[in-house]
């Protein structure tokens, strides 16, 4: 029985590697060295984004459907990018405020829509707070979360991750903390490439 399991595991790894064998560094992906600390139990896919980025807005239209099909052995997360100049800090602060209030599922896509379709200047705090109140969110609770130590710490972590990943633009998809997919012209092709990098990472983990 143990021998059969071992053979099945080897075959699984071989199939995964076959799908990822022709990936070319510098063309399909770049190595992150040193790698970001990966999830020990699962292959982790990290989408680095900025609410003000039109490409991130377009990618958002296909991300949820794709992420919903990921196997249980793969974890997907988002990280709002914060570069050293700090210009994108308000977007990261908004993301983690919504996270702290368990409002991401409800309002994440709405933030993109407000910025890119309704042309609302949500980087302005007064405009943002008015918009949030218009969405039925308790203004006092939002203000408290916005100014909290927890949200501040999460923003700082995002800044550190952005720097460690060596990013120079968004959207950026990083697999297992080691491989950044080099974005092709079509977002569907990007996600196909990410799937292949997932296969590679799973094979390197022994098929897990």
Any overview of this molecule?
This protein is of the alpha+beta class and about 210 residues long. It has one domain: Glutaredoxin. Helices cover about 50% and strands about 10% of the residues. The protein contains nine helices and five strands, in the order αββααβαααααββα. It has helices spanning about 1-20, 55-60, 65, 90-100, 105-115, 125-135, 140-145, 150-165, 185-205; strands at about 30, 45-50, 75-80, 170-175, 180. A five-stranded mixed sheet has the order 1-5-4-2-3, sandwiched between helices. α1 runs antiparallel to α9. The protein starts with a helix and ends with a helix.
Label the overall shape: globular
The CATH class turns out to be Alpha Beta
Strand order of the largest sheet: 1-5-4-2-3
What is the overall pLDDT average?
A: 90
What fraction of residues sit in β-strands? 5-15%
What is the domain total for the residues?
Answer: 1
Total number of strands = 5
Oligomeric nature of the chains = single chain
The CATH homologous superfamily: Glutaredoxin
Proper CATH architecture: 3-Layer(aba) Sandwich
Order of helices and strands: HEEHHEHHHHHEEH
Secondary structure tally, helices: 9
How would you characterize the largest beta sheet?
5 strands, mixed
Residues in helices, as a percent range: 40-55%
Classify the fold: give the CATH topology: Glutaredoxin
What would you report as the Rg, rounded to the nearest angstrom? Answer: 19 Å
Compute the separation of the termini in Å: 19 Å
């Amino acid at each position: 029985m143990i021998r059969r399991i071992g053979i099945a595991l080897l075959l699984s790894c071989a199939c995964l590697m076959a799908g990822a064998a022709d990936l070319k560094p510098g063309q399909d992906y770049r190595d992150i060295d040193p790698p970001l600390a990966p999830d020990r139990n699962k292959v982790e896919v990290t989408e680095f984004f900025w609410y003000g980025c039109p490409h991130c807005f377009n990618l958002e239209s296909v991300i949820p459907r794709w992420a919903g099909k990921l196997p249980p052995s793969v974890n997907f997360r988002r990280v709002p990018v914060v570069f050293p100049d700090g210009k994108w800090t308000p977007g990261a602060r908004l993301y983690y405020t919504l996270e702290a209030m368990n409002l991401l599922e409800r309002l994440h896509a709405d933030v993109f829509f407000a910025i890119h379709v309704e042309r609302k200047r949500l980087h302005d705090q007064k405009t943002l707070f008015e918009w949030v109140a218009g969405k039925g969110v308790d203004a006092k609770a939002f203000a408290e979360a916005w100014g909290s130590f927890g949200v501040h710490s999460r923003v700082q972590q995002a800044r550190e991750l952005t720097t460690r990943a060596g990013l120079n633009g968004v959207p950026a998809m990083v697999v297992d903390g080691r491989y950044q997919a080099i974005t092709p012209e079509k977002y569907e092709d990007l996600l196909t490439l990410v799937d292949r990098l997932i296969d590679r990472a799973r094979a390197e983990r022994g098929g897990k």
